[in-house]
Amino acid sequence: QAQLVESGGGLVQAGDSLRLSCVASGRSFSTYAMGWFRQAPGKERDFVASITRNTLSAYYSDSVKGRFTISRDNAKNTVYLQMNSLKPEDTAIYYCAAGSGGYPANYYNRQYKYDYWGQGTQVTVSS
Fold first, then answer.
1. Do residues 94 and 121 lie in contact, with contact meaning Cβ atoms separated by under 8 Å?
2. Along the chain (127 residues), what's the average pLDDT of each consecutive run of 10 residues?
């Protein structure tokens, strides 16, 4: 079983950068693919990015491709989301999630493919 804790959110201006972190407890972090989702007020939770357990591949939603980068450090049980050129429409609560299996990163683009979730961290981008 894994517990996930996100951090790094905050209030920034359009064009700024933020790096989110998600630390996982337990000794099996490297066996999970990891993903980031976000949920804006009044909207559904949407996929942002995913990364395979061995870091060989990553996958992004079209809305963040080229601006966000997902990475992980298995030695630190941590997955990151580097967010550059932030826009007001990026405002949301950001959640990290862990999914089992060794599928390609694009497999992990739906919430039901994940087993564990963090509590979320708020990102607010002002115009």
1. yes
2. 94 98 90 97 97 92 98 96 98 97 94 97 97
What tokens were used for 52? Answer: 């395979």
- What's the confidence (pLDDT) of residue 43? 97
Q: How many helices (H) and strands (E) does the chain have?
A: 0, 11
pLDDT confidence of residue 26: 79
Under 8 Å between Cβ of 85 and 52: no
pLDDT for res 54: 87
- Is the Cβ–Cβ distance between 61 and 106 less than 8 Å? no
* Long-range contacts of 97-101, Cβ-Cβ distance < 8 Å, separation of 24 or more: 97/4, 97/34, 97/35, 97/36, 97/37, 98/2, 98/4, 98/24, 98/29, 98/32, 98/33, 98/34, 98/35, 99/32, 99/33, 99/34, 99/35, 99/50, 100/31, 100/32, 100/33, 101/33
The CA–CA distances, whole Å, from 29 to 53, 59, 73, 100, 111 equal: 8, 19, 10, 10, 18
